[in-house]
Amino acid sequence: MVYNASGTLTERLLFTLIPPHCLLCQAAVNRERQLDLCAGCERDLPRIDWPCPRCGLALTESEYSLTCGACLKNPPAWNRCSSAVAYAEPVNRLVLQWKQRGHSPAGRVFTRLLARQLAMQVIPMDRPDAILPVPQHWQRHWRRGFNPAASIARQLGRELGLPVLGRQLQRVQATPAQQGLTARQRRRNLKGAFTVSGTLPAHVALVDDVVTTGSTASEICRLLKKHGVERVDVWCLARTPKQHG
Ligand SMILES: [Zn+2]
Ligand SMILES: [Zn+2]
Hints:
Blueprint: H1 9-17, H2 39-44, H3 69-73, E1 80-86, H4 91-101, H5 106-121, H6 123-126, E2 130-133, H7 138-144, H8 148-160, E3 169-171, H9 183-190, E4 194-196, E5 203-211, H10 215-226, E6 231-239
Parallel strand pairs: 1-6, 2-5, 5-6
Antiparallel strand pairs: 3-4
Helix pairs in contact: 5-8
The chain binds zinc ion (2 copies).
């Protein structure tokens, strides 16, 4: 639980009753931080250095603020990708625990880091009209008990003052796990997996917990743009760094 003096009633109550502790090293954390993460552990988190604004993958310092060569040649379906941290140790372990068990504070801690980063770097220039969480199929929802992307979207909506559209985008097919598949197999897997209903604003932010190859986000972006959305930004807690070799 992230303790936030301006959060929900439960958060405010816990903020008053229980002293916050760091998610990683368990040290007591100053309440002023409003984050269950100490300054040292926050500094040591894996990050994507100098990200390409388009795909969110690392560039070198001298290339920073430029679009990478891969995006120039083959631009992603979305317009901009922002992540709080890199999907590497210990983030991957913590995010997995949160997704499997739900009660870990990792999701809320990383979402707050993402909200702070977006508030500084993205919202002043590129404020979307609404947030859309990547939906999960009802069978997975039933097994897991919650949709991680939807809980990130709700917290971002509260912290950034943006509306969350939770019903317009639906997952109508349970897609098998994408790990170990080629890009083409992933695309085939996702064909027809999502539907859109109702009207959508011109500029939306699509929210997911982890973006790896981006095949899910790309599929949804193409669908949203077919339904009149002009601009889609992707916001995720963690971006998988480029794999070398
Ligand atoms: Zn710590
Ligand atoms: Zn790029």
